[in-house]
Design brief:
The complex is a heterodimer. Chain A is of the alpha/beta class. Helices cover 35% and strands 14% of the residues of chain A. In chain A, the strands form four sheets. Chain A has a seven-stranded mixed beta sheet with strand order 2-8-7-6-5-3-4, with helices on both faces. In chain B, the strands form three sheets. Chain B has a seven-stranded mixed beta sheet with strand order 1-7-6-5-4-2-3, with helices on both faces. In chain B, strands 10-11-13-12 form a four-stranded antiparallel beta sheet, covered by helices on one side. Chain B starts with 6 loop residues before the first helix and ends in a 10-residue tail after the last helix. Classes of the chains: A alpha/beta, B alpha/beta.
Chain lengths: 455, 488
Amino acid sequence: MPFIPHTEDDTRAMLATCGVDSIEDLFDEIPPELRADALDGIPAGRDELAVSRLLHARAAENAQPLCFSGAGAYEHHIPAAVWEITTRGEYYSAYTPYQAEASQGTLQLLYEFQTMMAELTAMEVANASLYDGATALAEAVLMAVRANRKSKARRIFMPRTVHPRYRDVMQTIVRHQGITLELLDYNSAGGHIDPASLPAEPGDITALVIPQPNFFGVLEDADALTDWAHTHGALVIGVVNPTAMAVITPPGEWGVLDENRGADIVCGEGQPLGIPLASGGPYFGFMCCKQKIVRQMPGRIIGATVDLEGKRGYVLTLQAREQHIRRSKATSNICTNQGLMTTAATIYMTVMGPTGLERVARQCHANTRALVQRLGETDGVETLFDRPGFHERVLRLPRPAGEVLAELAERSILGGVDLAADYPELGHALLVCATETRSEADIDAYAKALAEVLG
Amino acid sequence: MSNEPLIFEHSRPGRVNRAQSAHLGGNLDGIPESLRRKQPPRLPEVSELDAVRHYTRLSQKNFSIDTHFYPLGSCTMKYNPRACNTLASLPGFLGQHPLSAERDSQGILACLWDLQEMLKEVTGMTAVSLTPMAGAQGEFAGVAMIRAYHDARGDNARTEILVPDAAHGTNPATATMCGYKVREIPTDTHGDIDIEALMAAVGPQTAGIMLTNPSTLGVFERRIHEIARIVHEAGGLLYYDGANLNAILGKVKPGDMDFDVIHMNLHKTFSTPHGGGGPGAGPVGVSERLQPFMPIPVVGRDDSGAFRWLDERDLPQTIGRLSAHMGNTGILLRAYIYALMLGREGMVRIADYATLNANYLMARLRDAGFDMALPERRATHEFILTLKHQAREPGVTAMDFAKRLLDYGFHAPTTYFPLIIPECLLIEPTETESKQTLDAFVEAMAAIQAEAEKDIETLKGAPYSLPVRRLDDVKAARKLDLRWQAEA
């Protein structure tokens, strides 16, 4: 019996202890009319060898073209040590660390993770993760509504330069809480939110969301936007790419006004930190904030403390915010987070170090510039937006991007993300990206294939 | 066990792990100085060996299924077969970009389609959406669908969700997130829902009820049909919290109990890893009337038989997306691999042996002198032991027992849940533990009881053999220390 260790003797002895004749007798409290028929729609069990054969065949049916797509999920090199250690049974098969004394490994690691995320974003504190970048942003919006006590409007300014799927998820999650998401349009020349376009008298705003870099890969004028928001009593929610943080001004330092400097809440997608693409998950969301609003932060938070003998140790803290204590008054219904993913991310950041992470960021940036330059040599291909960017860019093609991508796919190239559905006003727009994993030869192959397709 | 310093304390300025980045770099042309970072983040500067040694040592401070028995009620901590991890980690799966073309993703789509079909069959629901990333998100999706259903009918007066007082904390928290008020329904002395109270509570304001069956008290809700009738007649819908699905897998289908929507915790019933607190996966199953509202994406097939994503164009009334992509695909894949190995017979055997193990352990503990919260009831896959007598005399609590069990090499059972049973341990052995392990657990419990009778201080000071002694939670919450700080 797969994964059931009982011998016939064991089962007999156990039934005798229970005082019944058969296992079936143990189900006698279930009304008979509820008992299910056989599960005919489910195949018969298979052994590991047979299942392995099937899964290898299925994996082979997934084509693996050369990837130039990003849009929130980036192919980075992951050092072998990361998953070798992460999949140790002591991490992989451990429970949520409620029993702190039996979970010091996970708890210390998460305390280190919180420190690393706070360092990367230059924020004061971080939580131990949320599900993914999109849900982290939704939770950040809910947190802002709780934390901004002066604002009564529950009104969020949401740039159209935020990832369209993140905006979809936010709608799903916050729509029942009387929160208004007001879309801000972007500057068509820069691809960014022009601070000068923001209203002088916006009224009561709860928070402004600032993506950095934004969905187009464009760098927002985060200083001016932050100062504008704070001047009008709004909190600032930064949505950032963690790789970019190695080289771009981190949200904790946004703004030039001394008072209230920096974003108030920062969140984002953690996938670039050692998590494989894996068809979209599992990834992890991260969240950081200013210390003064930490009690409004959702999700698990680890704190250092001491034991009976005064020795340093770690526990889940601020549990009074959480659903298992506060029930209907909790800050969120979140129960699990993405523990194993943060384990990998912590080891990734450690193995790379500040120098390694910066080199990765620089290489991504250089590769994307090289890619954009090469693709731009093809007739009819132009680069959109004149603002500075990081590691991702929008191109405009002479033909619908969907058609071009299909033809590139036949040449084993995943050529980017078609923006027609989300940004029809941009014409035949394509979002491209080249991380450190793309070589000069790869970029060359894409340029040649594109020239063929458009030729 | 010796103290392991923080990774930051291993750090030395200028130490670089060159194997990972020696040939990487490039200039930041195009990014003006004003947008560039001035000071690098203070991440650790260590060698690869330092990193591997540190995180290996930390791992050794954890309990885990691979090293310890976890009789953790309502959490279903069963063995996580290694094949599930190995096969889900094939490069063909891990390397797939989420925005890959459907024609390049037929392998993963086929796996997800098969899993949807299997979960439909085993739950008796009409359709399944795999996208919720955890049980709590599945719950959210379920209640949001209930709300969307009422809204679509213009039935806007329904403002309340009913929740039993023994329910998981996520239930009321979820109802609140969906804009509902929560009304608690009491439990009767036999552990069933108080039907009189339910009848008094339902009305035109009732949007639905959230139930776990078997309940969190570890017993089967025998009058489920009556409950369903009462709630449905009032115009409400029934939500099934699948936390305890392990107890009835293949024995009873939630669809046959007249539930309208259910979520499943694949990290419980389908043995995907808990990973020290996630990632999970919480697919939802729906009855026909909720099908139009399912969260997207869902895997469908076109006329040629090819798999494709269904989105808002296919399900215009969907409650929407819950993640940027498909949710925790890699976890779904592990559940699928597990389900393939079990097959139809294996699924039913899970319920059989999970139930046998729970009833055996309950009988042995009762024989050893412990009190059960509901002694007249059969255990399902779990049961509740109450230490209320021990708490009075000699004065040891459920917490003391839990901490002392750690010294005996057992993870503690769930303590102080459900909230309505005093000094309780909620115990769930799962089907993957052997009789020998269960017997050893009984011996440990008996030994701790004997210690308690002799000298309660032994228990009060536990644990003794772990990396740390009992930790000060109060201090942690009062004097927040949430990160390492460099010496000034």
